[in-house]
Design a protein that fits this description.
The chain has 439 residues and is α+β, with helices and mostly antiparallel strands. The chain contains 7 helices and 23 strands. It folds into 3 domains: 4-121 and 135-149, RNA polymerase II/Efflux pump adaptor protein, barrel-sandwich hybrid domain (OB fold (Dihydrolipoamide Acetyltransferase, E2P)); 153-201, E3-binding domain (Dihydrolipoamide Transferase); 218-438, 2-Layer Sandwich (Chloramphenicol Acetyltransferase), CATH 3.30.559. It is elongated, with a radius of gyration of 28 Å.
Length: 439
Amino acid sequence: MPTYKQFPLADTAEGLTEADILSWHVKPGDTVTVNQIVVEIETAKAAVELPIPWAGVVTELHVEPGQTVEVGTAILTIDVDPGGAAAPAAAPAAAAPAEAEEEMKPLVGYGSKAVVTQRRARKGAAPAAPAAPAPAAAVVAPPAPAPVAPRGGYVPLAKPPVRKLAKDLGVDLHALTGTADGGVITRDDVERAANGTPVAPSVVDSGSRERRVPIKGVRKMTAAAMVQSAYTAPHVTEFLTIDVTPMMEFREKLKKSREFAGVKVTPLTFAAKAVCLAAKRTPDINAVWDEAAQEIVYKDYVHLGIAAATPRGLIVPKVRDADSLSLKELASALTALTEVAREGKTSPADMANGTITITNVGVFGVDTGTPIINPGESAILCLGAIKDQPWVVDGEIKVRKVLQLSLSFDHRVVDGQQGSEFLADVGALLADPAMAMTY
């Protein structure tokens, strides 16, 4: 007989509470294998692909792309024994409440749990004789009425908590018109319906020159982190303008060298190396304020964050132990990091536990900025655009390659002297890469 299992949204080992469904890689009727990728979700940090731990035939997808789903919510139903009997076209999670649940098993590759439900016998049916326990990997469902398809194929758009509220209040979601953007049904919509207050349909002005986009995913996480940082760490920002003509000349030499053949060396590469070297001379810049413990934690390693613009917003992946890498190794690591970030494939683990960050606004032609420190760190360096500008050299005005740096730091950890010394060190290393020999 058909054996149905429900695949819940997994916690991707980062304390996840909810995620957005980005896209399905399967559809009802598809045959899947163990560990096949079936869905891509977006958490507050990154896009993550989830594999399914069973083989079988997909019978139903319970959520649509774009919906936000709580961890543990069933998002897909699969028949793991399609050859047992003719299975219905769909086995919705709400077709019947689960009367028996198997202990949930870990999802392969993640710390999540999978739910297996057994359909309730029809009312009035004679009690079945006790049967031998089914194997742990499967629960055989007794015959059940064919599931009722949604009215006209319409699936109400509502988050799981709103669906639960509607169920508790006896409100039919199919009868409601959502007032939120995109026709999503809200708690207020359900409560008004329960109180007998008519819900006015949302009106969209076709001639409007405005559009509204829900705040979620990476954008939501970034906003919360920046607000937290801005209101908890006393920011100080200092600026330094330097002549980086020697650095750009050195870059051209490296391009022609056999050692760096095929390696992409950018101004960011030099800045990353300079930050690692300068942090050794000013360790406070690589420390962090622990408010709960009332301690300053000094890090004897540099996990260098690189702010990267992606289609889903700003993220900050880390180069682990960047201080132990050579210039060539740093260049390769930065290239790989940015490529993965642009593809939206940076994992949550790759964005955690940084010690200091570099943001490069120069790629947009911007001269400088006053960056906000990432939570859990004490400083962030901003690189501006490198431009040809007049510069005094040996008493004469010449056209040189000029760069503006800015450094924001947490004044609880880093005093003005320490911040200034660090910024001056970074500037000296960029203005004359040979200075690295003295560090």
